[in-house]
Structures are given as structure tokens and as C-alpha cells.
Design brief:
Number of domains: 2
Strand content: 15-25%
Shape: elongated
CATH topology of the largest domain: Aminopeptidase
Distance between the termini: 12 Å
Number of helices: 12
Structural class: alpha/beta
Largest sheet: 9 strands, mixed
Number of strands: 13
Radius of gyration: 24 Å
Length: 419
């Protein structure tokens, strides 16, 4: 079967975008739709109304993932998932996640109106809590069977600090999601044909190069550690330099070297939090606690970075006559995108006359990161003006949104007709 020459309806997509942007709107021009909040639930209700109005099948699962389905004539067909997320970070932008869900819905409407019969079910899906208000990538973890039961119910041997898990369970229940049933959202890989996601880049590479489409080759892996340097508190005026065991000095030395050593060759390092104790101006710091992360698109390289990072921490502690402890908080494996899906995205670009697409690594996390080891997956990036994201100033030219949605549509057709 030849690839049908379809196109999305930009006016309908714009109307959807405008309506959604009003839900949880902030005075600064952004949106505040934290997962499972009133605004998020309102956005879900709005999405469900759009699905019903389009005559598509509305479906939700045990993790609260909400979907529009265009069924194939073959009831036993596999499902091609297309989606992103409607939740936002606090006072975030209007494009992050939303563009992907709305474009996915538009793809289903266009295919439905065309009368083209595809050999797969098409499913436009909104994943629960991608941003991590409660637990990042919650919905996509549940769908792929990667959600630990302890993440909801807790480890009986571990204290629930600040009752976060209890609050999460309460938020789920308020949204009609039963925590005890969440594991039932898991699907079988054999039932899924693949996953596609359109997303703003959230970086400046496309904007800087004047390119309009990014073909994502992979999503970086990420490891987060808490590193504690332990020295000795003493009087800042009377303690001689050679007698000091200054935890903050070691931490500062560590951060400086780590930035130089690990933020190169496709890697990235960040120290996002630093706590100093006792925290008085006239006391030499006895303790410095850092939260740091390293990122790399290659899993083997990431593992090597982890080892070198911990070695560096120990050496910095020794240099300043301190002790050092490390605890891994998170490890998110690197996620390569399907080479075949990249080829289909490139083919869609060629069909649409796009000659300036760029292969890009994603340095941000996405639901595709969970899906990539579950089913063949692909991601399409569109430019973020000045690379700004997670900010009310987040902006993408509407022409690029429309172009990205059409690339998504034609990639969907290529995947669907190749199953």
C-alpha cells in the first residue's frame, strides 16, 4: 500500500493548543499543571471531551494513563502508541509535553477522516506524572512493567519521610486511581508495534542551527548521587590553615574538577544542591552534602563516569583529611532510539521536503526513555526558541509545531504500514 498524502489540520490543532493552555494558566504566561492536581485533572477531562467529540474510543488504565484509540479493522492487531504528557513542572511552559499529546490526537483524527484502514490500532496516550511531581515517568513505568511495588506502598523497613508515599497514594485515589491496582497497567510487548513521541527540544541546538526537525538518536542515561564530605567543626579565626578539616573546601574542589572532567565528550555533570553544616559564618564547615548527577548517552560510558566520579570524591576527601560517603539515589539507563524508527522519521522529512533535520541526543528525560527497551521507539524534536524550557517563556514557532505534527503523522503512516 502506498503512503497516503495526508496532512494535519493546523487550525484545529491551534484551537486545541489555545484551549489547553488556559487550563492551569499562570500570570506569567505559562502553565501550572502538577500531576494529579486540580488543573491536571481538568486537563484530562478536557482531553477526554476532545476524544469523545472526535468519535474516537476513550480508554484509561490502572495507572491513570488516558488514551484515544482509533481501532484497526483487525481486532487482533498490534497497537502503535503515540503520545507524551499533559502535566507540567511548577509554572512551566505551554509547549512541553502538550504539543506531543495534541499532535498525537490530531494524527488519529486525520487518519480517521481519511478512511485509510491501517493494520494497527493507533493510540494517542497521555502518560501520568511524566514530570515527577510525585514519581517521574510514573505512567510509562507502569505501562512497561518497570514500576516497583515499593514505590507506592513503601518498604516496611524504610521510614516514609514527610509521608510522601502516603500523600502520593491519596492523590492517586482522588484521581480515581487505585494504588493497589496500578501494576495492572502493564502491557505485553508483543501487543505493541512501537512508540512515537513529538516533543520540543528543550535545548538550543535546533534553534542555533536554524534547523526545524531533530531526529532523536537516544536519550542520555542519568545517575544521581548524594556525596557527603565529613570534616570537623572548629573556630574559623583560631584554627590554622594546616589544621583545618574543611568539608566545604573539599566539596568546592570536587565540584570544580568534576565540571571540567565530566562535562565533555557528550557527558554532563551537575551539582544541584549543596548543604553545609553547621552553617555559621564563624565555624569551619564540618559537613558538606552534595546532590550531583552525571549524564551520558552511552550506558557503558555512563558507568565509567560513575566510577571515576566516586574515585574523585574519595581523593578530594583524602586531600583535605576528611572522610567521604556516597549513596546512589537514581540510575536511569541510557536509552537508544530504534534505528529503523529514525529511518522512518527521516523518510517522512524527505517526503515533506525537509532537508535540514539534525540527529540529536536528548539530554532531558522523556517517556520514550521507558518505552525504548520495551518496544521500538522514536522521538521527533522541534525547536525551542533560545533553548528555554521549564519556564513560562518557553516558546516554539507555530509553523514548527505544525511541521513537527506532519512529520509525526507521516512517520505514523510509515510505521503502521510496515508492521
Amino acid at each position: 500500500m502506498d503512503i497516503p498524502n495526508l496532512t494535519i489540520n493546523p487550525d484545529r490543532l491551534w484551537a486545541d493548543f489555545e484551549q489547553l493552555a488556559h487550563i492551569g494558566a499562570t500570570p506569567e504566561g505559562g502553565v501550572h499543571r502538577l500531576a494529579l492536581s486540580n488543573a491536571d485533572l481538568q486537563a484530562r477531562t478536557w482531553f477526554a471531551g476532545q476524544v469523545d467529540a472526535a468519535g474516537l474510543t476513550l480508554c484509561d488504565d490502572a495507572a491513570g494513563n488516558l488514551s484515544a484509540i482509533l481501532p484497526s479493522l483487525n481486532p487482533n492487531a498490534k497497537t502503535l502508541l503515540i503520545g507524551s504528557h499533559l502535566d507540567s513542572v511548577p509554572n512551566g511552559g505551554c509547549y512541553d509535553g502538550s504539543v506531543g499529546v495534541l499532535a498525537a490526537l490530531e494524527c488519529l483524527r486525520v487518519v480517521q477522516a481519511s478512511g485509510v484502514a491501517l493494520p494497527v490500532h493507533l493510540e494517542a496516550i497521555n502518560f501520568t506524572d511524566q514530570e515527577g511531581c510525585w514519581q517521574g515517568l510514573f505512567g510509562s513505568k507502569a505501562l512497561t512493567g518497570k514500576l516497583s511495588p515499593l514505590s507506592l506502598n513503601g518498604d516496611p523497613d524504610q521510614h516514609d519521610d514527610n509521608n510522601q508515599k502516603a500523600a502520593f497514594r491519596a492523590a492517586l485515589q482522588r484521581a480515581g486511581i487505585h494504588p493497589s491496582d496500578v501494576q495492572q497497567a502493564r502491557r505485553q510487548p508483543a501487543s505493541v508495534a512501537g512508540y512515537l513521541e513529538l516533543h520540543i527540544e528543550q535545548g538550543a541546538r535546533l534553534d542555533r542551527h536554524g534547523a526545524h526537525i531533530g531526529i532523536v538518536t537516544g536519550i542520555v542515561g542519568r545517575s544521581t548521587y548524594e556525596i557527603t564530605f565529613l570534616g570537623e567543626a572548629s573556630h574559623s579565626g583560631t584554627t590554622a590553615p594546616q589544621d583545618r578539616r574543611d568539608a566545604l573546601q573539599a566539596a568546592a574542589h570536587f565540584i570544580q574538577i568534576a565540571h571540567t572532567r565530566f562535562s565533555r565528550n557528550a557527558g554532563a555533570f551537575n551539582c544541584g544542591n549543596l548543604r553545609v553544616l553547621p552553617g555559621a559564618f564563624n565555624i569551619i564547615p564540618a559537613q558538606a552534602v552534595l546532590t550531583v548527577e552525571v549524564r551520558h548517552p552511552d550506558e557503558a560510558q555512563l558507568r565509567g563516569m560513575e566510577k571515576r566520579l566516586l574515585t574523585l570524591a574519595r581523593k578530594c576527601a583524602e586531600r583535605y583529611h576528611l572522610t567521604c560517603s556516597t549513596e546512589q539515589m537514581v540510575h536511569m539507563p541510557a536509552a537508544p532510539m530504534s534505528e529503523q524508527f529514525q529511518t522512518w522519521i527521516a523518510s517522512a522529512c524527505q517526503h515533506l521536503g525537509i532537508s535540514d533535520s539534525l540527529p540529536l541526543i536528548s539530554y532531558a528525560g522523556h517517556d520514550a526513555q521507558m518505552l525504548s527497551s520495551f518496544t521500538p521507539s522514536g522521538m521527533i524534536f522541534i525547536p525551542s526558541q533560545h533553548g528555554i524550557s521549564h519556564n513560562p517563556k518557553e516558546y516554539t514557532e507555530w509553523a514548527d509545531v505544525v511541521l513537527g505534527a506532519n512529520v509525526l503523522l507521516h512517520t505514523v503512516l510509515r510505521v503502521a504500514l510496515s508492521v
